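Predict structure. Chain length: 319.
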Amino acid sequence: MEDAPYEGAQVSERGETQDGGQRPLPDLQSLQLLVTVAETGSLGRAAARMLISQPSASARMRTLERHLGLQLLDRSTAGSRLTAAGAVVTDWARAVLEQAAALVEGAAALRSRQDSRLHVAASLTIAEELMPGWLVTLRDTAPDAHVGLTVTNSWGVVEALRRGGCDLGFVEGPRVPDDLHRSAVGRDRLAVVVVPGHPWTHRRSALTGRELADTPLLLREAGSGTRETLERALRPYDGIAVPVLELGSTAPLRSAAARGLAPAVLSALAVREDVASGRLVEVEVDPSVRLHRILHAVWPKGRELPEPALHLLRVAKHR
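Prediction complete.
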């Protein structure tokens, strides 16, 4: 039998529960259970697949709903179906689980390469869309080079360089601090994307800067190169509106946009597959809105780049 209907806890906009406590983070097993329920259509079948009892699965799901302050499942004797909120959270959960798996794999790689000679920090779009190809080429051209990669936003890359946490950084932001060397390694642009059928997909004219500035959007977090580029582009229009959602990762924003939550402004590199598949539609923006940006390799002035960093820099500049 499926568990009883959910009774939602009251949570403030700051993520606090009614008694003033901070909302706990969900554990990975609960997120995996939610994804498995979505795949099997039943809490009981999900429990069986994960080799746990149904009472344990029910309790775990109820705890997840209470922590998030959302009803994720519609329960009935016929099974469990995702609510609208549950569908969006499930997409996010998949992204979290993928990142957790990447974390475990990455930690294992770092343990096996404690003597890594090159430490790199890269902002998210570069790390996800460009760095894998660069590293494959680097392995061909400099097989002895071992790379440890930290993925953060552009501000985090700058801070890692300043405190000596990496040898070479890659950033997407429009500004590079004066205490860093820079070298252009590519170009990117921001794309405004919406779900198919959104009113903007029927426009006969390009979206104006004023319209974009006045629209609540799905955005990357402050400190990211993507956010900084958009803020600079919309400064002539009094800046951006209060975002519908702002996150430190691209994947959940793409999912939320594909669910029709709101338009998103993200790297064209990051959404190219979604646009090609028709999952998202790119909206034309007036060319006067400066959404293009240069991608840079950066490193501290007065510090020589080690040989593996020079190899990687050459690869990045010529791919």
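Summary: DSSP finds twelve helices and eleven strands in the chain.
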